[in-house]
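Repro:
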Amino acid sequence: MDDLISVYPLSSDRKLIGGSAANTVQAYAREVDPAAAGGRVLVVPVIDGVVSADYEGSMKGFNELPPEMAKAFADKVARKVCADPHVAGVQFDIEPFNVSRKNGQYHFYKRIAQNFAGTVPATMQHSPVECKDRNYPQGRFFSVFTSSNQLNPAGPALENIREIVTKFNNGYVIAPLYDLGSGGPGEALAVTEYQRRATRHAKQMAKWAAGSDIPFQLGVPAAATVHEHAYCRGGACRKAPGSANDMPTQDSYLEAALTAIDKSGAREVEQFRGVSVWAWTRGVTVHGLQFEPQIPPWNVLELLSTKL
C-alpha cells in the first residue's frame, strides 16, 4: 500500500491562482463569489492519473490490483478528500477508463461510491472519516471521465458503469465532446467535421444514458485540445482541412459543441447533469507539441455566458 499514493491537496502556482504554495481547493473556495455564481459554490477537484504510461508516478498496474488492495487504495483517497470541508465531490480522470472487466478500476470506483455515501472505515493507523457531515448531509459525489462509446448497450462495460455510479446514487459520467480526431496529436479537425462528430457522440450519450438511467455531463472545448485548437506549435502540427471560412478558432469549436448538444436532445433527457467545460490549464503539451489557447479567451467566455 505504501506504493499507492494519492497526492492531495495540491499547492497552486502563480499561473493558476495568483499565490504560490496555497492549497488549490481552499483558494478556489475562497476566491469564487457565491453571489456572482448565483448560489453556493461547490468545489470539485480533479484527481487524475495515467494507467497506460510507464514512468515513475504513473498508475501502471492499477487495473491489475486485487480487489482488497483496490478497496484499500480507494479508502486512502476517500479519507483525504472527505477530511477536507471544502470538497463537495471529486472528478476522477484516470485514463484510459476501463471497467470492461471487474478489475482494479472497477473495485476502486465501487469502494469510492460506498465511502462517499457514508463512512471511510478505520484502519490500524487511522480512525474512520465521515463523508456525510453537516455541510454534506448526503455525502460526497464523484464522476468518471470516459467516451460515450463506453455506454454502448452491446459493450462489456455498461453494467459495471451503471453499478458504480448508481448503486448509491452519487456518481455520474462525463463524456467529452473533444479530442474527437482520429489522427495523431496536432492534427486539427475542421469545425464542420468536428460538429458532425460531436453531434453523433452527444446523441448516442443521451440515448444510451437514458436507456441505462446513468447520470451524465457532456464536456466542451472552451480551450485548446490536441485536435480542437486555434494554434499548434511543433513539427507534427497539421492544419484543419477545408476552406478559409472553416479554419478553426476556439469559439467556433465551442459554438459547434453547444449546437451539437442542443441538436442531440441531451438537454431534455432526465439524466442530463449539465456541461463540463475544458479548461483553465497551465497549457497542453503532448509529444513536444504546444496547443493554444491555454484558457478560454474573452469571446469564448461571452459565448459560455449566453449559451451554456
